[in-house]
Amino acid sequence: MGMMEIVPLSSRLLVAAHSLVAYLGKMIVPVKLLPFYPYPKSISLFSLEFFPALVLAIGITAVCIVRAKKQKIWLALWGYYVVTLVRCSASCRWGLKRWQTGIPICQVLDHLC
Q: In the predicted model, what is the mean pLDDT of the chain?
């Protein structure tokens, strides 16, 4: 049984929102960078680690959508960032399966995105 089958969708969405915000922070202030960030042990919507990140990710998305009426560049930039992060995290997560099954990871990701 793989990791995806153990972790509920709600937890994965919270971790994804946290990652979006955390990586924005790492781009602005690149300190404490690691080649691997461990998966959190406890995930709760109301924790100080995940709730602000979820609110900020939703807020950035909402602002970009509202601003898209006048300046489409912000929605395009945010969309590019989100899709790039999703594709990178998916290829890291599924990288081993590519070699085990022989299916190119690009084909798998193209069907998901």
A: 77
Angle at which helix 105-112 crosses helix 72-101, to 10 degrees, equals 140
Token couple for 40: 């959190």
Q: Whose structure tokens read 């997560």?
A: 93
Q: Is 54 left (phi over 0), alpha (psi -120 to 50) or beta?
A: alpha
| Terminal CA-CA length for the chain | 24
13: left (phi over 0), alpha (psi -120 to 50) or beta: alpha
Residue with tokens 């915000």: 21
Whole-structure pTM value = 0.69
As a whole number of angstroms, the distance between CA 80 and CA 113 comes to 12
